[in-house]
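Journal club prep, shared notes

We agreed each person brings one worked example of a sequence with its structure written out as tokens. Mine is Glucan endo-1,3-beta-D-glucosidase. I'm keeping it raw so we can talk through how to read the token line rather than staring at a rendered picture. Sequence first:
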Amino acid sequence: MVFNVILFAAFFLASNFVADATIGINWGRHTAQRLVPATVVDLLLQNKVPEARIYTSQEDILKAFVGSRINLTLTIFNIQNIAGINLARKWVQEKAPYFESANIRRVYLGSHVFRVGLTDKPFLHMAIDTLETLQYAINEAGYGDQIKVTFPHTESVLNDNLTRPSDAEFNEAIKEEMARTLRILKQNNAPFVVEVFPIADVAYHNYDPEFAFIDNKSPFVIRDINNTIYTNVFEFIHDCFVWALIKAGVPGMEIIIGQVGWPTDGFPGANASTAERFFKGLLPYVASNKGTPMRPGAPIHSYVHALTDENKMPYYYPFARHWGIYRSNGEPKYKIDLTGQGRDIYPTKAKGIMHMPERWCVFNEDTTDTQKVKKKFDEACTRADCTSLAMGGSCSQLTFAQNMSYAFNMYFQANFQDEEACNFEGLGKVVTADPSVGGCVFPVEVVRGEQEGDVAAEGSRLYQMPSCGIFVVLVSMLWALFYD
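Then the structure, token by token:
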């Protein structure tokens, strides 16, 4: 009986969501060769993307969005820099010229502060205080109806060992802090933001991989109360949070999917083909306003993650460098219709991108000094992106010499083809014949002139993330297996 009342309330509240769902996109810049802001804005406009999230609030990025009419979400990672009402007011004063001209709509604080807060309560309390004071400062300046401050969340804030959405509630360890956060969000009509990564979520739960796709082709489903059936992990995760919000006393709070993506490398099943299939199912589903079993007919505003690959993200999760729809040279990897109409089209290619010459750095196959060979391999992969060599990656089947060449070339390209970057104490050589093997692409990157701005001010997007050392150890183990 209680469950029936809750379900009725949920369905009633869902009917109050009337606006059509929007499809936005996230743009991060942790990459050696990145697109300039003006090019990114042009790409979004050409692909008719109405909303975007940037992982910064830097002025040079905001300027590029002025007049574009693209609704913008900002991110502040160094929360301590705006802690306290005086610092919050200062931030508002500095950014206010862009609030309307750059269509700023939301501000996200931190990188999963509740996940960090499970073991660092002082940090979590400071973050919640900052959420409240920054929203107050924005309200005080007259922009409270336009700009909402919130936190992004992952499934880590829920109780463990979930088998169905109706079992979900917020983790006992952070319930008090979550209750306070929800009160602040409700008072300001701000959304609850959830990040969903289906390829990782099904692996974490040990579900059938097909459950990651909207067009699930397997018989695997999850059954919940009142004969509710879940055929994909997107709806499953969404409704886990619906249930958690109901139990927390805010059944009508809006949920936005702040990140949802599919990597194209660095993980089993991560490739352009599966990414294309994933989005071909997801985006028309979002655009249809079909809703979920717990919120039928309710729009789910969703942000595609991400616009481009980021080859400076941590090694610990190899696939974290490969979320992009576009390569760093502005070329799309696969077909995707960002309007949600499901058309079989490639997104618009970035204009005005200049490539470096078609030159590659390869291993000269001199194995006389095996210790030197291993040392140079490790150095290359520590300083450049070797995540495609990870198990399940597009280059995981290379021979020993090909592995060496791939590592050398990635370092060479990251250093803009400086010939000194292909020395490796005499082990490298520059060639003009493409050494790519099957689906393993040895890239040629864009010219240095495509660099613009400084990402240092983006702050600690990688807060509490492990260093690259773990992945280097794994790659070194692979190196040992390849070496005969």
